[in-house]
Design goal:
Layout lengths: L1 H19 L46 E6 L7 E11 L5 E11 L9 E5 L30 H5 L3 E5 L15 H16 L10 E6 L1 H16 L5 E7 L5 H8 L6 H13 L25 H8 L4 H4 L9 H9 L11 E6 L7 H12 L7 E6 L8 H17 L12 E4 L2
Parallel strand pairs: 4-5, 4-6, 6-7, 7-8, 8-9, 9-10
Antiparallel strand pairs: 1-2, 2-3, 3-5
Helix pairs in contact: 3-4, 6-7
């Protein structure tokens, strides 16, 4: 804890010095260290401008997290800096792939390891145009929406990274709700940030995600020691993580979010060779699957929600097939123990992921031998699926900081649900 308190104090002092000197941005080599003379011939004193952090293309392009391409983000706020990166990762099949994402940090060189928040994004779609990194293109970029929630962390010296996930912004179809792929993307963008010594991304790691990102976060907590044991993962928070997949599939059929089931089927078929959409989708609707790569989640829902599910499929129940059922269960989040402390958060009025599902999930995880601390918080009031993170963010911030600074978990909340009144 002292280490990071000193780090943040150092950051504040550096920021104050940078502002006082009129620095804060990087300069070209011929500008820094140069001198000029006024008309009387007297020389002015030379002042070196502060140099900000930077990310370079990696020399070893095969290493997980290696930077393959980088583009600096043009932030309106001069106190933060960021990059859209393409980095090396690996597919579920074990093949090397390219994945895109964003790295955002305070705009000064780190003097100590910094805490890192790696975010799993929510359901956005399966097309490249849905990649969250596209929100960071253009001039004078401002953190808005859910990204704005991270501003206090950046102010405190954290690094915030977000993977687009495999197939969003990179080659191939996005393997939606394939847990190992999501976890790999979340870990590898942290490795990508660690390639830049000036960032200091070697500090403790916390992972948070909402909806699909909550599903990803749960897999992170369960696959940490398999995928990235060298990273200092100190905690995970999962907001409205989808689970109980067979029950959830039945819940979504015929409803406002039925299109997500088509995304799941297409993703599983993309990830696993033994699965084929031709065996489960009615022939007349096969061409419609191209729409998955022509629009984001709203377009997917508009395309597929109005089609009766029994007409869309050529079998009575896709997930009655043993191969499909096995892969569906494999990507649920209720089979393995969490290897780091986990906080589950859920809004009681969630219209997409029934709140009872995370109650079942908590009980299931707690019944698995060897799990680490896990607890659940349910929020009353107007806590819809989309709006819940804004409501529970202050509690999450406090829980995050406790994990980063190594405060003990509250053992009285182990395997319990706390209801937070409106």
């Amino acid at each position: 804890m002292k280490k990071f308190a000193i780090s943040i104090l150092s950051i504040v002092l550096i920021m104050s010095f940078t502002v006082a000197c009129g620095g804060g941005g990087s300069s070209s080599s011929d500008e820094s260290g140069s001198s000029s003379s006024d008309e009387s011939g007297s020389s002015s004193s030379t002042t070196a401008e502060a140099v900000g952090p930077n990310i370079q293309i990696s020399s070893d392009q095969d290493a997980l997290g290696a930077i393959l391409a980088v583009e600096e983000i043009d932030f309106f706020d001069p106190m933060i800096v960021g990059w859209i990166v393409t980095y090396r990762s690996v597919s579920v099949a074990g093949n090397p792939i390219e994945v895109t994402g964003t790295i955002v940090a305070p705009n000064f060189v780190a003097t100590e390891p910094r805490p890192v928040l790696s975010i799993g994004h929510s359901t956005l779609g399966m097309a490249d145009m849905c990649a969250p990194s596209l929100d960071y293109t253009g001039d004078d970029v401002v953190l808005t929406g859910r990204a704005a929630l991270t501003q206090p962390l950046l102010d405190d010296g954290w690094i915030v990274v977000t993977s687009d996930f495999e197939g969003l912004g990179g080659p191939g179809l996005h393997p939606y709700i394939v847990g190992a792929s999501e976890a790999q993307g979340i870990f590898d963008i942290v490795r990508a940030a660690q390639t830049a010594p000036t960032l200091g991304a070697d500090g403790p790691l916390f992972v948070w995600g909402h909806s699909q990102g909550g599903h990803a976060a749960m897999h992170v907590s369960q696959l940490w020691q398999t995928i990235a044991p060298e990273l200092d993962l100190v905690g995970v928070a999962a907001s409205a993580p989808p689970s109980q997949f067979p029950l959830l599939a039945d819940y979504l059929k015929g409803g406002e979010y039925q299109g997500y089931l088509v995304m799941v089927m297409a993703a599983l078929a993309e990830a696993y060779d033994e699965l084929s959409l031709e065996t489960v989708i009615a022939p007349e609707y096969m061409p419609l699957l191209d729409e998955l790569e022509l629009g984001c989640s709203g377009h997917v829902r508009e395309t597929f929600n109005a089609i009766p599910f029994e007409d869309l499929t050529s079998v009575d129940d896709v997930f009655d097939d043993p191969d499909w059922y096995a892969r569906l269960l494999e990507n649920d989040v209720n089979l393995l123990p969490n290897q780091t402390p986990v906080l589950i958060l859920h809004g009681i009025q969630d219209e997409q992921i029934p709140v009872v599902s995370t109650s079942l999930l908590l009980d299931q995880i707690c019944s698995i031998e060897g799990h680490e601390h896990i607890e659940r918080r349910v929020y009353e009031g107007a806590t819809t699926h989309r709006g819940a993170p804004d409501v529970h963010w202050p509690d999450l911030m406090e829980w995050m900081h406790d994990r980063i600074y190594d405060f003990p978990v509250d053992e009285e909340n182990e395997c319990l649900t706390t209801t937070i009144a409106e």
